[in-house]
What does this fold into?
Amino acid sequence: MSAGLVPDCLIVGGGVIGLSLAYELLNHGATVEVIDRGPLGREASWAGAGILPPANLATAIDPLDRLRALSHSLHREWAVRLREETGIDNGYRECGGLYLARSSGEAAALHAFAEMLREIKIEIERLLLDDVAKLEPALREIVANQLQAAYALPGEAQLRNPDHLRALKLACERRGATIRADCEATEFECSNGTMAAVRTNVGLLRAGQYCITSGAWTQRLLLRLGMTTGIMPIRGQMVMFKCETPPFRRVLNEGPRYLVPRDDGRVLVGSTEEEVGFDKRTTDEGVGELIALARQLVPALRDVPIENSWAGLRPGSFDGFPYIGRMPGFDNAYAAAGHYRSGLHMSPGTAVVLRQLMLGDEPEIDLTPFRVGRG
It folds into this structure.
């Protein structure tokens, strides 16, 4: 976009939701500027493991399930397109997943989860315990001593968050987007139901439309506009092992925790769920729990060095639904945040339905349950 021109849309927040929306708007002829309070895409979007659980758009009825399923159906297409446009492989792999239970209570919950997936026609297979060790020999020890139940989800996929963000940023820049890091929104100028400008630490920025996609920080910005939401930061800690080769091939899930193998041998282990405000520090206790989990499930990791650990702040919401849509009282201002653990997974669908709304089309998913400003 040429210097001095007012863009069609200013997006406040350069994580995966903001960059996906920018990409979608640019693909439909809009001009876009994206700003972020810090380095681009270095918050929850970067910190996650990139797990893409299977979904079925044909059977999804609930709007949240439809958003998840629409997004899941788009990830393969976006991965191919981004690689063609930028040369960056975002790590999209249809690797499949294993869901494991080591106690009777966990096994009962896993059986119920499997039945729920079958009802919406998502392929899931209960495994004999001997078959688990055949599929993933690294699990042979827990199969022999601890495992109570296991299921395979062939449709589970993954991608590498940092590479996906790099590809989105480059694709947006090549389409003429202006992208500013270290540009923090501080105040909003509004008049008669219209947002006129965003005041930032580098000056006043104007656009035809505005969208706040600032993750866990969205609540703070909306409060300056007199809006209250249920968005809250939930800390998730992560650990990364560095193996010579991947010790297993599928994503391993046990309750809310998981191990994700990368092609280069790295194994990501996550994640904690902690309400600690905006504190992004790791803790010895949190990291220690994740290391113990990884080495219990995959004994081969006992002799593998830990390369890194970090934490991110997921944007949770009080009812489990993200906030997506027009801000109440404004004709040109929108928000998209509160996706909790599913921001990366639901980012393509969120971008599509919000682009449809912003450009005057009927969104293909009912956005009423996601309305901004609900209690």
Q: What stands out?
A: Residues 9-89+160-229+319-370 form a domain with the FAD/NAD(P)-binding domain fold (CATH 3.50.50.60). The first strand starts at residue 9 and ends at 12. Residues 63-86 form the longest helix (24 residues). The mean pLDDT is 96.
